[in-house]
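Lecture notes, continued. The same structure-token format from the folding unit now serves as the input rather than the output. Read the line below as a description of shape only.
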């Protein structure tokens, strides 16, 4: 009875939170315990319900769930899961990405491996939203396999304080994707605030920052120019004859970084 990484993490955490009680567990509580985004938890719960491993009930602003006997049996068959406590990571990007740009500082510390999905943060200009959506589509398999969960500002709900949500998710991300374009460099918030904090966390070994060149722009001397970027040879995505090939190359580079941050299967 096979369980994907995200399914297993959500199911195990649900069982821990549920304990011996017969109470349903709210999806927001599951998200906090697994350090996953609420929408990703909801997606996994829907998948698990389809397999008969959980039961869901609708709430006013989400779902609550309960692990079934079939779900408990599935967990017993696959054995224990590693701790769900996650740690921020700085992976050695230069060892995993294509050669062609300056390498990261070698003195950045490397933190412990991540047990659950690696959290991605998209820093981008809204003028590049369509390109960001295309990148998300190419990372969909990584998300479905439970290796990553992504966040961007379009996920901020109505009535939520936008800056607080941005700051919170930027601080919790383990990989920060800087989607570079003329519009990104022209954005005071992207360049002066998000980029500065992202690089601080990178240099402190708390996260890995990956610049992704979407459109042609002169970025010589930018604070992130010292980092290894994507796609290969830093060819801007929009200059590739086949844009899907560019995004595939980026997705492969991100997968290699994620694999370096997650424990090897036992």
């Amino acid at each position: 009875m096979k369980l994907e990484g995200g399914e297993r993490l959500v199911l195990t955490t649900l069982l821990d939170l549920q304990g011996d009680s017969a109470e349903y567990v709210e999806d927001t509580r599951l998200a906090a315990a697994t350090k996953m985004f609420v929408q990703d938890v909801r997606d996994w719960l829907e998948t698990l319900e389809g397999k008969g491993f959980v039961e869901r009930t609708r709430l006013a602003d989400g779902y609550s769930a309960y692990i079934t006997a079939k779900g408990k049996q599935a967990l017993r068959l696959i054995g224990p899961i590693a701790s769900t406590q996650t740690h921020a990571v700085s992976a050695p990007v230069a060892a995993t990405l294509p050669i062609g740009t300056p390498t990261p500082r070698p003195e950045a510390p490397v933190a412990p491996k991540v047990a659950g999905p690696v959290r991605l943060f998209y820093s981008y200009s809204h003028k590049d939203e369509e390109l960001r959506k295309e990148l998300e589509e190419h990372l969909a398999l990584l998300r479905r396999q439970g290796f990553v969960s992504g966040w961007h500002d379009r996920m901020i709900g109505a009535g939520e304080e936008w800056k607080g949500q941005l700051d919170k998710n930027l601080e919790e991300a383990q990989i920060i994707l800087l989607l570079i374009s003329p519009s990104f460099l022209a954005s005071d918030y992207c360049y002066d605030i998000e980029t500065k904090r992202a690089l601080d966390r990178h240099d402190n070994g708390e996260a890995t920052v990956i610049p992704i060149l979407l459109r042609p722009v002169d970025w010589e001397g930018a604070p992130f120019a010292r980092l290894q970027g994507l796609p290969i040879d830093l060819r801007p995505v929009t200059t590739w004859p086949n844009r899907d090939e560019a995004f595939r190359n980026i997705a492969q580079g991100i997968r290699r970084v994620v694999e370096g941050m997650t424990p090897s299967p036992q």
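Point for the exam: The CA atoms of residues 126 and 233 lie 25 Å apart.
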